[in-house]
Design goal:
By secondary structure, the chain is an alpha+beta fold. Helix content is 24%, strand content 20%. Strand 1 and strand 2 form a beta hairpin. The relative contact order is 0.20. InterPro entries: Histidine_triad_HIT, HIT-like, HIT-like_sf.
Amino acid sequence: MVKDDCLFCKIVAGTIPSQKVYEDDQILAFHDITPAAPVHVLLIPKKHIDSMNEVSQEDLPVIGHIHGVAIQLAKELGVDQSGYRLINNCGPDSGQAVQHLHYHLLGGANLGALTGISSSHA
């Protein structure tokens, strides 16, 4: 399913260009146009899902696939050993700006200093 008014669905359809780093029949990964870190890639399912709250049982395999591809991309982009974050924002208070399920793969910098969040705050 594709939503006509969704920015990420338009990227999947190719009507809005992106700098792709990975694509298969289920997901697309591309560089964020306003990166928050030296490595900032967005990973999205090609099927439109508004947010993590709308993930159904049948969607779980694609969620796992996204995580597997994120691991692969972290290696390819050279941040697997230094460290990276895989973030999913869900809902307006989280900062989810596009209503299409997506993950941010961030790395290439000290992300604790970048965002003010570290494991010591957990």
